Amino acid sequence: MSKPFWSGVFPAITTQLKPDESIDLDATAQHVDVLIKSGVNGIVFLGSLGENQPMRPDEKRLVIEAMVKAVAGRVKVLSGVAETSTAEACRYARDVEKLGVDGIMLMPAMLYKGDARETLAHFRTVARAAGLPIMIYNNPLSYANDITPEMFAGLADEKKFVAIKESSGDVRRITDLHNAVGDRYALFTGVDNLALEASILGIDGWVAGSGIAFPAENQYFWELTRRGEWDKAREIYRWFTPLLHLDVSTKFVQYIKLAVQETGLGKEYVRAPRLRLTGEERKRVLKIIHDGIKHRPKLPKAKKTTR
Question: Which of 165, 193, 208, 245 has the most C-beta neighbours closer than 10 Å?
Fold first, then answer.
């Protein structure tokens, strides 16, 4: 098997905001440092968790410019691409390439449920617009367009497509992708509460969400899966799963930002139309987070495997 182009944990980081909803670049950079120290191999900025879509074009570019400088080559930097038109996605890909990202995480065109021909045309057109390697993000539950294993096989001739973020919610897709495309792409899971199941079936990486609030535990769990220490991995996973469930809700941004706040790594401020949690929902989510903090596992000081 060939070595995957990208591998390991590539967390999707939140974009930290101030109370007035303006972007807090310093707070975002501080979180970046914590994640890098935990052992991640890359960071995805401006994914869905990074509130890409509510941001103005100039704000997105400001975030990427600042975060490329903050990372300073320590890990790979990817930017989400979530535009409503192919032309805007091409323009954004060209711009972030100039700003120094290492690659992009490309979604189908937002707000339109295209057929297979249209979806593949969108991906190919964006790939031609810049010289960046691309992780294709498949999330039909959220974005209506399902990129099937057969469609990925059809895209295999485009060398810029190097990785898949599989977030269909159907863990059987991991095996279907292996059967359809072999090791053509680096295969990442994007569903937190399927991370163990996907690891058993064979993946190269994880675009983690909830784990940005618990980066040391997230990385330790990942390392256990790499070493095939499944009993230990199951033990951590059972503690982790209530927190990982926070990633698979319509309000995953609010939930995970609240977790980040409660672990001291940022603030919960979100941009409208999202609103901060209130009432019984807030109490319920806080209980999950506080229970996770209370029962946080003690991690051994073990030497990490090669990521």
Answer: 208
